[in-house]
Design brief:
nine-stranded mixed sheet, binds adenosine-5'-diphosphate
Length: 495
């Protein structure tokens, strides 16, 4: 039997796999793609120039060309956005869940209608293969709006016999690896629960967030319910430290997550932090090996490995090590690296020059530590930021390659003999976001799920996401859950 499961620790698991993210037949998506030369801030339902008067460039990481200019919001701009959100809050709460749900459905539907445009822009601005933007990021972003639209008028069923109230103004800070999808993860549940938001996208990938602002305006959402401010860490810090923000939802690095937690300690702001990861992908000897190899490839090379839940550590049972490694090497050679806009591309561009440096520094560390390296023999384009898919074999447990998040297409491979050894090694990191188990035995998959200290466990699959399934970490991978019914609790006062 071939079972595929997503197991979220908090509740049951979802057992659905050819997920239909459409929810409704998708309308024909328009061919129109428009990127403005310059994007302002979206505050109180209007596009406004930043008080700072400053703009920065967004770069296409596959060509190094400038995509457009993005406004840099300062403290005053953030304050304006928070004020706009606060002003919109009473009416937004008062209209009730049924009406709020209608707006969310409308946004979901408009994302579907403009799916092609969003996919193209996501790949131009962020470097991810168009196939992934088209088939995963954008449909899944729409799916989150659909899913939370459905909850908006059913909050009392989610929390029976309890009083639920929205928190107020939510400050939301997102990373560059899934720009539109992370915006949807954050905005949809917040709005469904009756909050207003100030969202900041990452500085290298702001364009689809600004396109979302245009779409939100077209959807007729009341002014100020969603505000989008752009900028880098300082802008994020201004949101975190703003006195009139009631909730901080952050997805990003563990380092910034820790600093955010320190800054808001004692302020009473509700928080969810979704931080780094170093997931173990564990192949037992009874696993369907070909399927597992494919899952390992997807686990680490999906989105160039810019995935917090990436399967960046592979544990192979020793009896099947030679077979798995040989098959992995053969598969690696077939991966197509290059132009993100080519629908056959498997591995696109690294998101930024800085990230490419981080990844290549880790590759050097692996070489210096003497681990066997295997890289696919791919041509690296002359322009742009690219990194060949890389394996390191027999990596020591204590090595930085096995312990630290690289956030790139680099897999650290280790072996194990027994179930206990696999669990012990897999849990031996500061992180605990996700893990994967490949086995033919359901009982083994459940035993592993119970013992692995990670928020999401995939069995015989990897990197599968669904709006119904809660997502979040243990240990230094953060706390709080997004997605599913648990994602509602993060945006409500339940008494
Ligand atoms: P990554 O390593 O993925 O770039 P970061 O944690 O640096 O992750 O960035 C994630 C998001 O957090 C981005 O939107 C970034 O601008 C923002 N950010 C960076 N530093 C801070 C900070 N000190 N306070 C709040 N937000 C920040």
């Amino acid at each position: 039997m071939n079972i595929e499961l997503i197991m979220a620790k908090e509740n049951a698991f979802s057992l659905k796999f050819d997920t239909d993210w459409q929810y409704a037949p998708a309308p024909e998506s328009s061919d129109h793609v428009e990127i403005k030369a310059r994007y302002d801030l979206f505050i109180g339902g209007k596009f406004v120039q930043p008080n700072s008067k400053k703009y920065f460039n967004s770069i296409n990481p596959a060509t190094e060309a400038i995509v457009c200019e993005i406004a840099e919001a300062n403290e005053q701009d953030v304050d304006d956005a928070v004020k706009a959100a606060r002003k919109a809050f009473p009416a937004w709460t008062k209209i009730g869940g049924k009406e709020r749900g209608k707006y969310l459905f409308r946004i979901a539907r408009l994302i579907q209608e403009r799916a092609r445009e969003f996919s193209v822009i996501e790949s131009i601005d962020g470097g991810k293969p168009i196939r992934e933007s088209r088939d995963i990021d954008i449909p899944l972003a729409a799916a989150h709006f659909f899913y939370y639209a459905g909850w908006a008028d059913k909050l009392e069923y989610a929390f029976p016999n309890r009083k639920v109230e929205p928190l107020g103004v939510a400050g939301q800070i997102i990373p560059w690896n899934f720009p539109l999808l992370m915006a949807a993860w954050k905005i949809a549940p917040a709005l469904a629960c009756g909050n207003c938001v100030v969202l900041k996208p990452a500085e290298t990938t702001s364009v689809t967030a600004m396109k979302l602002a245009e779409l939100i305006k077209d959807a007729g959402l009341p002014d100020g319910v969603v505000n989008i401010v752009t900028g880098a860490g300082k802008t994020g810090a201004a949101i975190v430290n703003h006195k009139d923000v009631n909730k901080i939802a952050f997805t990003g690095s563990t380092q910034v997550g820790k600093s955010i937690q320190k800054s808001i300690a004692g302020t009473g702001k509700k928080t969810t932090l979704e931080l780094g990861g170093k997931a173990a992908n564990i192949i037992f000897e009874d696993a369907p090996i070909d399927q597992a190899v494919e899952g390992v490839i997807n686990g680490i090379f999906f989105n160039q490995g810019h995935v917090c839940c990436a399967g960046s550590r592979l544990f192979v049972q020793e009896s099947v090590k030679d077979e798995v490694i040989q098959k992995l090497k053969i598969r690696l050679e077939t991966l197509i690296l290059g132009d993100p806009m080519d629908k056959n591309t498997d591995i696109g561009a690294i998101n930024s020059k800085e990230q490419l440096k981080t990844i290549t520094d880790y590759i050097k560390i692996g070489e210096q530590e003497g681990f066997e390296k295997f890289q696919a023999n791919v041509a690296i384009p002359k322009k742009g930021y690219f990194c060949a898919p890389t394996l390191f074999l027999d990596v020591a447990q204590s090595s930085r390659l096995a312990q630290e998040e690289i956030f790139g297409p680099v897999l650290a491979i280790q072996t194990f003999r027994t179930v206990d050894e696999a669990i012990e090694k897999a849990n031996n990191t500061p992180y605990g976001l996700s893990a994967g188990v490949w086995t033919d035995k359901g009982s083994k998959a459940f035993n592993m799920a119970a013992q692995l200290k990670a928020g999401v466990i995939w069995a015989n699959t990897f990197n599968k996401f669904d709006p119904t399934s809660p997502f979040g970490g243990f240990k230094e991978s953060g706390f709080g859950r997004e997605g599913g019914m648990h994602g509602l609790a993060a945006y409500l006062k339940v008494s």
